[in-house]
Write a structure and sequence with these properties.
Length: 337
C-alpha cells in the first residue's frame, strides 16, 4: 500500500470512528435508518450528570414564580409529554394559555419549536414557558437566584459542569440535555420495520391509506417534516390565532402551524394547536369534510380526501402502531427519585 493509499485509509477510518461515535453514545442513540439529527451536540455534549440535572429541573416547580408549575405539569410522560385534561395550557394563578402544549419527543431532529416556530434553537426553548406570564411567569435571573440558594442544585451543577456558580446558559442547556434523550423509536411500527413483527391485515390496509393520504406531511420515520402548514382549520373566533404569520409577518404564512409528529398520537390528545379535537375520528372527519379553503391552504389538501367509514377505522388502526410504550413508561424519563 502506497503512502497516498495509507493516508486515504487513515482518513476514512477516522471518519468512520467519528460517525460511529456520533450515532451512539451512552446518553443518545440515533435509531438505525433514521436521518441525522439537526441538533449540534458539539455545543452541548450529553453526559449522565448533565442529563440528570436537566431531568431534575424539568420536574421541579421551583422554575415557576409561585413554585406551582413545572415543565412536567404540561408535559406528562405517559401522554407523550403533553397534557390531556384541557385543550389549552394552564399556568400559575390558574391562568390559561392560548395554545395546546405540544408533545415532546425526538427533539434532536427539530430546528424550530413552538406551534409557530417562534424559537429556533432547543437550548433556549425552555426560556419561553419559564418567562411567559400565563405559564411559569418567572424571570431567568430570579430563577438563578433560587437555584443558587439550594445546596442540592449547587451539587448537581458542579457534577455536570465542574462549576457551582449556576448560569443561565448552563441551566437551559441542562434542560436541553434531558429533552434530547426523549427519543421514541420502539413502537410496533418500528418493530415491523426491523422485521421483528408483522402488521395485522387491518393495520396493513391502514398503512397503505397512510402512505396515500398522510405521508407527505407526516413523513416516516419521524412522522413529520416539522415544517409549517395551513391544514384548513376554521379560525377560532376566541383565539383568532394567525399561526406563523405572527412570527414572520409574511402573508403566505397565515394560519400555518408546525406539523406535529404522529408518534404516540394515541395518547397525545387533544389534537391541533388549540386542542379542538378530542378523538382521532374527529381529526379524520376534519380532513374529509371540514377543510376551510383559503389562499395559504396546504396544496395537498386542495383536492378532497375521500375515506369510507371502514377506511377511517383501518387508518386509525395503523396509527395505533405508532404507540411506543417503552417511551411512555421508561423510568429514565420519569420523576427523579
Amino acid at each position: 500500500m502506497g503512502r497516498q493509499q495509507k493516508l486515504s485509509f487513515v482518513f476514512l477510518f477516522c471518519i468512520l470512528i467519528s460517525v460511529l461515535a456520533f450515532i451512539k453514545t451512552d446518553e443518545f442513540t440515533v435509531p438505525k435508518n433514521w436521518p441525522a439529527p439537526a441538533y449540534n451536540f458539539k455545543n452541548n455534549p450529553l453526559n449522565a450528570s448533565g442529563v440528570a440535572l436537566g431531568r431534575q429541573l424539568f420536574y421541579d416547580p421551583l422554575l415557576s414564580k409561585d413554585h406551582s408549575i413545572s415543565c412536567a405539569s404540561c408535559h406528562l410522560q405517559f401522554t407523550a409529554f403533553t397534557h390531556v385534561d384541557h385543550a389549552l395550557s394552564h399556568g400559575i394563578k390558574d391562568s390559561i394559555g392560548t395554545r395546546n402544549a405540544p408533545a415532546l419527543m425526538n427533539l434532536a431532529w427539530q430546528s424550530s419549536f413552538m406551534w409557530d416556530g417562534a424559537i429556533n434553537h432547543l437550548d433556549v426553548q425552555a426560556l419561553a414557558p419559564i418567562s411567559h406570564p400565563s405559564e411559569m411567569g418567572e424571570t431567568l435571573n430570579k430563577l438563578l437566584e433560587k437555584l443558587r440558594r439550594k445546596q442540592k442544585y449547587r451539587n448537581l451543577f458542579f457534577k455536570a459542569y465542574h462549576d457551582s456558580s449556576i448560569t443561565g446558559e448552563q441551566t437551559l442547556k441542562a434542560i436541553s440535555q434531558f429533552m434530547l434523550t426523549l427519543v421514541s423509536s420502539n413502537s410496533k411500527y418500528d418493530s415491523v420495520k426491523r422485521q421483528q413483527s408483522q402488521f395485522t391485515a387491518q393495520e396493513k390496509r391502514g398503512y397503505q391509506l397512510f402512505k396515500t393520504f398522510c405521508n407527505t406531511c407526516h413523513t416516516e420515520p419521524l412522522f413529520s417534516t416539522y415544517e409549517f402548514a395551513n391544514i384548513g382549520l376554521p379560525i377560532s373566533k376566541t383565539l383568532n390565532d394567525s399561526g406563523r404569520l405572527r412570527i414572520t409577518q409574511k402573508a403566505n404564512d397565515a394560519f400555518k402551524f408546525k406539523i406535529p409528529s404522529l408518534r404516540n398520537v394515541e395518547f397525545s390528545y387533544p389534537y391541533m394547536h388549540d386542542g379542538r379535537f378530542k378523538k382521532l375520528s374527529d381529526v379524520l372527519n376534519h380532513y374529509t369534510k371540514g377543510i376551510n379553503y383559503s389562499e395559504t391552504l396546504a396544496p395537498q389538501l386542495e383536492k378532497p380526501i375521500v375515506l369510507s367509514s371502514n377506511e377511517k377505522v383501518d387508518l386509525i388502526a395503523f396509527l395505533m402502531t405508532l404507540t411506543d410504550k417503552h417511551f411512555l413508561f421508561n423510568p429514565q424519563f420519569g420523576y427523579p427519585k
